[in-house]
Amino acid sequence: MRSSSGHPIVAAVLDLVMKPLEKVRHRVVPNAAGRVLEIGVGTGLNAEIYDPSKVLELVGVEPDPYMIKRARPRFDKADYAVELLQLGAEDMPFDDAHFDAVVVTFTLCTIPDVEGAIAEMYRVLAPDGVLHFAEHTRSDSRMMAGIQDALNPVWGLFSGGCNLNRDAVGLLGAAGFEMEEVSGLGRSAFSLLPVHRGTARKR
C-alpha cells in the first residue's frame, strides 16, 4: 500500500507495471463474495474483475490520494454497491467481524506497519471469513533472497515504498490465518519477484 502522501508519477505508471499480473488478479478477485473489503485499491484495477452476482457491497481503502482519484471512475461503473475511503489499513474504522471477505492484491509489500494491517484484516473478518490474496513474496532460494535483501533499499525508492523481500504469505499465517490454498506462479524459487496467490480463512 502506498504512503498517504503518494506521488502522481507512481499512480500514473501503476497500470502499466501491473499489466503482466492481470491474469493472477482474475484468478483471485472474482472469488470474493458477500460484504467485501479491498485493501489498497490502487488505481482500481480490480473494479471490473469482481463478480457482481456475488458481491453485496464493497468497501475499498487506499491512503494514496493520487491512486484513489484514478480508482473512483472505475468503481463508479461497478454493478455493485461501492464505498472508497482514503485511509490506511493499519487502523480501520469498521466493527469487528463486519466483512465476509477481504481482498488484497500486490499491496502487502508496501504497507508500513504490515503486521498491524494484517491484524486489522483479521479483526474485521467475520468468523470463517476468507481472505483472497495475490502477492509477491520473499524467495525460498537463499541466493535469491540475499539478492532481494541487497536490492531492497534502492528498490523501494523507485517503487512507491515496495519491499522486495517481504514474506507476505508467512506474515498471514503468523497472524492466525489458516492457509487453505497457496499456489506459486511459474518458477518462483528462481525469480526476483516470486508471486503467490491463494486463500486464507479466519478461524
Task: Give your account of this protein's structure.
- With 203 residues, the chain is an alpha/beta fold.
- It has a single domain (8-201), classed as Rossmann fold.
- The chain is built from six helices and seven strands; from the N terminus they run H-H-E-E-H-E-E-H-E-H-H-E-E.
- It has helices at residues 8-18, 22-26, 65-76, 114-124, 142-157, 168-174, and strands at residues 34-39, 55-61, 81-85, 99-105, 125-136, 178-184, 195-201.
- Strands 3-2-1-4-5-7-6 form a seven-stranded mixed β-sheet, with helices on both faces.
- The chain is globular and about 45 Å long.
- It starts with 7 loop residues before the first helix and ends with a strand.
Number of helices, counting only DSSP H or I runs of 4 residues or more? 6
Count of spatially separate domains: 1
The topology string of helices and strands comes to HHEEHEEHEHHEE
Q: Which structural class do you get from the secondary structure elements?
A: alpha/beta
The major sheet is characterized as: 7 strands, mixed
Rounded to an integer in angstroms, the radius of gyration calculated over CA atoms is: 16 Å
The number of strands is 7
- At CATH's second level, what is the architecture? 3-Layer(aba) Sandwich
CATH class: Alpha Beta
